[in-house]
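Residues and backbone
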Amino acid sequence: MTHTTRKTRIRAAVVTATALVTAATVSAGVSQAGGSRSPQQPSKKQIAGLFDRWNAALRTGDPEKVADLYAKDAVLLPTVSNKIRTDHAQIVDYFEHFLQNKPVGEKKRTIINVLDGNSAIDTGIYAFTLTDPKTGAKRVVEARYTYEYEKRGGKWLIVNHHSSAMPEG
């Protein structure tokens, strides 16, 4: 075998090996991209809309409609109660009382972190206009909030909701 032929065969072998590695890498990348079926990440606007959905449920006056937006294992640390709510019945109980004040929420500041295709956190400050059921007097309560959302069974649910009145008011 001549020196040139051997050099040509080595070069051909290197080119072939490189092509195979490249093809395998591209195939793996395509396989991961197409086959992993990881959910598409929601936009911050979509996550912000979950508060609007919750606020609209408050306006129905139906505690069940509000509680249905929470996961079965959700935790609610509410603004106007010292009790931690950890199941559907307890969350309904809280909203039965809270909804008597005809609350209307408005976000003042919001920070949204999309963690992945199935989870996000919305935190910030909101204000609720509450109406006293006996006198009709209105008052505004500002509070800090955190909503942790998870997409379960194709539906975004609240898994953790913490709300506390502003310490300086």
Remarks:
- The chain has four helices and five strands.
- The mean pLDDT is 84.
- Residues 92 and 157 are 15 Å apart (CA to CA).
